[in-house]
Amino acid sequence: MDFKLIRRVHKIGQWLAITPSNYDKKHVSKIQKSYNLLIFTILTFGLIKIIFYTRRTINTVNLILYYFIEMSLYLLNINSIIVTIFWKNNQWCQLYKNLKRINSTEDNTRQFFFANFIYLMAEIITSASLYEKYHQINIFRRYQLLAQMYYTFLIYVTVRMFLVRYQKLGELLTRQLDLPPQETLPVVRKVAKLVSFLRKSSEIFNDLFDLSLSCIIIFTILNMIFNIFWLVSDGGSTVLDDILVILVFKQTPTLVWTLIVILMCDSVTNEVKKIHFTCYQLYFNGTRGQKTELHQLTKEINQNLPKFTAIGFGVVNKTTIISMVATIINFIIFAMQLTQQN
After folding, report:
1. For 315, phi and psi rounded to 5 degrees?
2. For an engineered disulfide with 14, which of 21, 208, 249, 341 has Cβ 3.0 to 4.6 Å away?
3. Nearest Cα to Cα of residue 100 among 190, 33, 3
4. pTM over 0.85
């Protein structure tokens, strides 16, 4: 059951101060609130330290990019550590309570351990390789990067739960194509009701995660721009080993997980479109007396397509990736021209 994985994610997430300790409880304990405030205070001082330190070590364009990267991480942490836990815990509980109504036997525990293992290995290799040449290991930034990766994985797992449930409804409808028309109508009614219910649950998801998802996408874009611009603008002084470390171990995990989340959001919408198409097939196979209600139910399903959103990006789908690539290319061209003029 996929809730075994969610429980594990929450157990670790509470120590990172980015999730409630238990998604079944609507009230957050005073201990956890105090712990979250402590982490938030430490991160705030860490951000101030980073700003004053990097001001003396990075050129102007890279400095601006670096500040925006740090602010995107900081905003993500404010939203996850403070806003979501203190003011949106009820929505958090309601979301997973709703998803429990449609059971799933999928178990992604291996993905959980694999994702964490890959990230930790990438962090160790990156820190060990670049420690002496480029920066000290900043514990505040390491925490923020870990929290960002973990929160991205949490969003992935949650969107995956939506996808699995829609797939289950789609399979249920597909089986009706081989059955007599008189047996299909009750099933279509049930599916239409659950599709509407899941769409309302996706609105709760957007309320919880749209700002966080936006911060993750912005961080990924800025991080790509920063690393590429740094490698291009350093006059060839960066050795090949360092380039490989930066691109493969530092950038790839962030980029891959962000793309996976975006594609997962797109897959959910496509899955509901398949359900809608199957309903049309059942409509044409139905009897004359059934067609009026089947048409209405088909229309209802089409009106309840889920849309996962990110602030500033609108609906998250494949076109979001195109927007990311265009932004990266345009900014690097602009930054290179600005550097040449100076």
Report:
1. -70, 130
2. 21
3. 3
4. yes
